Amino acid sequence: MSDFRQAFREGGLILIVASVLGFSYTATMEKGFFAKRSEVTVLSETSSAEASAADAPLPGPKMIHLPEAQQLRNSGVALFIDSRHEFDYKLGHIAGAINIPLKDFDARVGELGGYPKDKPIVVYCDGAECNSSIEFAAKLFGSGFSNVRIFFGGWREWTAGNLPTEQEAQ
Question: Which domain holds residue 94?
Fold first, then answer.
């Protein structure tokens, strides 16, 4: 029985030492419970311009959903770019879309030289499981295109909605 008590005391001591070390570490590093809270700004003390700037969305590509993608395509004001591989594009794509695969961005971005940098561009790929549209849109934005949108539902959502598509001749 005394061995059990000894083990229990040692275990308790280890637990206490570990807790003290853990709290000391988080307090020193200002993490977890001890993390510094940001200063609370009283809205009445800030100007309306400052409040508006704080609420403004960050610049960059914007995610859009199927209804907005469909409206942009139907209006004809946006350029649609399919960022999938050429093989997938030829099997089927959103009607009127051009194909610039993500891997070819650097070599082919010059093809957009005549396209106004402030006009809408909608980039898509297969859908939610594909991120090439996000990477492509970020590169476009970094190249000076200011009105870039990502249709994250992509090809799968478009075809599920029975919306206009095209195929390249094989």
Answer: 62-166
